[in-house]
Design brief:
By secondary structure, the protein is an all-alpha fold. It is built from 31 helices and no strands. The protein is elongated, with a radius of gyration of 38 Å.
Length: 632
């Protein structure tokens, strides 16, 4: 208390036991500790030599779990600050007489001048140990260090500027610990730095760390890893949250460029996406309408890419939606207005890169998928550039993952409500020929391997959806390339491909005013009849429905004498399946024969009489005979 020759040594000896008492389970012990420390800070003769040792222990009481202890420590520190002001009135006279107005109105309770100066003068000696303790092996030490750092930063205010680099490095390391309570304290500390320290100081440091964590060549000392990426983005988001709008405004383009790095958006880690979205949201909240309009397209494109990722949880998807709403609200508009204003420009920017897209490395692909999924009624106006992009990235040699994803999206769009589909503007019919010849049919051609088989299934499904839109031109139904690929698809090894082909071709030939030549009909019917022997019953049923429509395409002046051999072949193949083991197939084949009977009733009756005695069930033979006789 009163100094002496061995006072310094005794002080050093008691520091460790005193620091342990800050963790004591009994509040009365902790209160007594802080009263002793407060007494020393007020009355110890050599206290000026031990500020840096006593202050960390004493100020830990400001974050004590018991409110009574916190209040007592706060009152004691006020006394310490007052005593310091009285003892150093000469040095502090200008600050006392002419107080600075810069930090008067802060979101944090402002300590008196003596308290702030005390911390300021000893901060550089306390900080290294605090940063070291934030990664200590014991949880309680890590938490206590994070709490104390937050307290000291509030006292430091803008004088923390000179220590910003070291503080940020401590934040990054502290974010790597397991305890969320420690990370939450670092979040609060980052907000304090963002508020008091000019962005001119911390922005270059944190953007360098963000870029370095993505693996891009940089001088950042932060190690490249997913964990460091999460840490830097989390710190960045809270720096932006705490920053003053006036501090952010001069650096808008630099911040947007940092948040729009493709390597960040391509991450498949939940927390990386979460803190990237939070950073964008906090940044948007700091901009005004004019500034937001200047960077809206870039941020909206980034959010579009994130919203297309498959790993999104419901809460994360909600965060992205909320951020898009904030971007729209800041510009006094709706989210759909963002699509109307920005999507065409964004698509035109990414269109030149479409031929080089890879699912694992192309942020532009995610943006494209998101626009297709969410542009809604505005999608129809984008058809020209959407079609160009599809042609560029859907050739057989392009990335299969991308093609499969796009085919799935196209199917959902083509089968959706007209107002939210590709035909929302009623112009789809003008682009169907390009989609058919340059997107769908190239992927329908047979190639060896499982992956091409999956592509054929997806492309046939897209063909089916395209034919059902009502925008399929009649002249395309007799297209040579289309009719050439149908037989090979009907023979495909994949059952779902064969089934989808039957359904797709039925829709194609059901388009009004379809006309196939007799030669085309003769080429196709053997392949269709052959599908009645398929090993899947649903394919056989679909084939029957297709044949029922197919035989209505034969012209009324069909020359039955010239093409008698074709008729015989058709009728024999169908009559064979009129005695199928499944009654459902019998009924469907009967329907087909009724449709085919109009071609040449006498020829059908002749063939029916030849096979009637071979059938196990004569019911459908009798019904068909009565129907044909009625025609004759």
């Amino acid at each position: 208390q009163y100094g002496g020759g061995k006072a310094g040594k005794r002080m050093e000896e008691c520091m460790f036991p005193l620091s342990q008492r800050t963790f004591d389970q009994i509040p009365a012990v902790r209160l007594c500790l802080y009263q002793v420390l407060g007494g020393w800070l007020l009355n110890l003769l050599d206290r000026y030599s031990y500020w840096y040792r006593l202050l960390p222990l004493f100020l830990s009481g400001l974050t004590d779990e018991l409110s009574e202890v916190r209040e007592k420590v706060s009152l004691l520190f006020e006394e310490v600050g007052l005593r310091y002001e009285e003892e150093n009135e000469r040095q502090l006279k200008d600050f006392l007489d002419y107080p600075q107005t810069t930090n008067i109105h802060t979101p944090y309770p402002r300590p008196r001048l003596g308290c702030r100066v005390l911390v300021r003068e000893n901060f550089s000696r306390i900080l290294p140990a605090l940063i070291r303790d934030m990664t200590d092996w014991t949880e309680r030490n890590r938490l206590k260090a994070a709490e104390l750092l937050h307290t000291l930063l509030i006292h430091e205010e803008d004088h923390a500027t000179q220590h910003t680099s070291a503080i940020l490095q401590g934040f990054y390391k502290g974010m790597l610990v397991d305890e969320e309570c420690v990370r939450e304290r670092i979040d609060a500390s980052a907000e304090v730095i963002g508020y008091f320290v000019s962005s001119d100081t911390w922005l270059p440091l944190v953007t360098s760390a963000v870029i370095g964590s993505t693996g891009i060549k940089t001088k950042s000392p932060v190690a490249t890893s997913v964990h460091s990426m999460i840490a830097t983005l989390r710190v960045f988001s809270h720096l932006l949250k705490g920053a003053k709008p006036s501090s952010i405004q001069p650096h808008i383009s630099e911040i947007v460029d940092s948040l729009s790095i493709p390597e960040l958006a391509l991450s498949e880690t939940h927390d990386v996406i979460l803190y990237l979205v939070r950073s964008i949201h906090n940044f948007i909240e700091k901009t005004n309408k004019e500034d937001c309009e200047s960077i809206s397209a870039q941020l909206f494109g980034c959010l579009l890419g994130l919203s297309a990722k498959s790993i999104l949880t419901p809460s994360l998807r909600e965060n992205i939606t909320h951020t898009q709403q904030s971007l729209a609200i800041q510009q006094e508009m709706e989210v759909l207005d963002l699509y109307r204003i920005h999507t065409k420009c964004i698509l035109e920017q990414i269109e030149p890169t479409a031929c080089n897209w890879l699912a694992s490395t192309s942020h532009e692909f995610l943006v494209f998928i998101s626009i297709l999924n969410h542009a809604g009624t505005h999608l129809g106006s984008l058809l020209p550039v959407v079609t160009d992009i599809l042609i560029s990235c859907m050739s057989p040699k392009k990335d299969n993952v991308i093609k499969l994803e796009i085919f799935n999206v196209l199917v959902s769009l083509l089968t959706a409500d007209v107002k939210a589909s590709l035909d929302s503007e009623g112009e789809l019919k003008d682009f169907v020929p390009q989609l058919l010849h340059k997107v769908v049919l190239p992927n329908c051609r047979w190639m060896i391997g499982r992956t091409p088989g999956v592509m054929r299934t997806a492309s046939v499904s897209c063909l089916w959806a395209l034919a059902k839109t009502g925008s399929f031109p009649p002249e395309l139904s007799c297209d040579k390339d289309l009719l050439a690929v149908i037989p090979t698809l009907l023979e495909d090894d994949t059952e779902s491909t064969r089934l989808s082909t039957c359904k797709a071709f039925k829709e194609i030939i059901s388009v009004p005013n379809v006309h196939l030549s007799v030669d085309q009909l003769h080429v196709l019917y053997p392949h269709l009849v052959k599908r009645l022997d398929d090993n899947r019953d649903d394919v056989r049923v679909a084939t029957c429905k297709l044949l029922a429509r197919f035989y209505k395409l034969f012209p009324s002046d069909y020359n039955t004498e010239l093409y008698g051999a074709h008729l015989t072949d058709m009728y024999q193949g169908l009559l064979l399946h009129l005695d199928d083991p499944l009654q459902e197939i019998q009924e469907e084949v009967y329907t087909v024969l009724v449709a085919a009977a109009n071609l040449c009733p006498r020829k059908l009756m002749e063939q029916l009489d030849n096979v009637r005695h071979k059938h196990r069930v004569n019911l459908y033979c009798q019904k068909l005979s009565e129907h044909v006789q009625g025609i004759i």
